[in-house]
Amino acid sequence: MKPRSSADLFTLAPVIPVVVLDDAATAVPLARALVAGGLPAIEVTLRTEAGLPAIERIAAEVPGAVVGAGTVTTPAQAADAAKAGAAFLVSPGCTPTLREAMAATGLPFLPGVATASEALALLEAGVTAMKFFPAEAAGGRPLLKSLSGPLPQARFCPTGGITPANAPDYLALPNVGCVGGTWLTPGDALAAGDWARITALATEAAALRPAG
Ligand SMILES: O=C(O)C(=O)C[C@H](O)[C@H](O)COP(=O)(O)O
């Protein structure tokens, strides 16, 4: 299912794997391994040159995947990611310029925030689904819990320092839609093409909460 709204991204799975690829050739088997484990939404960061071609390949060759672009920091990257076939966009922080560029693609997006003022600026613009980054460093679960009082309409995907151990506590918060993290795609498993290990990690993560 392609997400139509940003809130739809929260319904696909409890975890969005954040993927940093050095070689776009690994993108398709990696995406298949994650989907096989029950994690269809995949955020491929634009931190590496391989990011855009990886998005292109996954979008074209893995029908069960919902591939998005992460680390979107400029309007040009938002447009490029949309052109490559991204189904959603994620940014580590946000400015009005970046928000407008992401909105202009027509794709669902999760702009990054770390404070009440940043969340308020997005709420003023009608954006209620956000990435909370860097989650652990910025205050973690206590900060999110504190925001749920005054800003109950804001919902978050905490990312940055999330692990299988702390993910359940985040997912238990009323203002957390899903969490994100890189732990599903360890560098050594990627290098070795150990797709079975990645499917096993995805399966564990998918069980953190029933989808929907
Ligand atoms: O580049 C970005 O915009 C990001 O998306 C940053 C990632 O969310 C974090 O790097 C997650 O990393 P872990 O803490 O290893 O799970």
Automatic annotation (TrEMBL):
InterPro entries: Aldlse_KDPG_KHG, Aldolase_TIM, KDPG/KHG_AS_1, KDPG/KHG_AS_2. It comes from the Bacteria. Pathway: Carbohydrate acid metabolism; 2-dehydro-3-deoxy-D-gluconate degradation; D-glyceraldehyde 3-phosphate and pyruvate from 2-dehydro-3-deoxy-D-gluconate: step 2/2. One of its GO terms (molecular function) is 2-dehydro-3-deoxy-phosphogluconate aldolase activity. It catalyses: 2-dehydro-3-deoxy-6-phospho-D-gluconate = D-glyceraldehyde 3-phosphate + pyruvate. Coiled coil: none annotated. Its EC number is 4.1.2.14. Keywords: Carbohydrate metabolism, Lyase, Schiff base. Belongs to the KHG/KDPG aldolase family. NCBIfam families: eda (TIGR01182), PRK05718.1 (NF004325). Homotrimer. This is 2-dehydro-3-deoxy-phosphogluconate aldolase. It comes from Nocardiopsis sediminis.
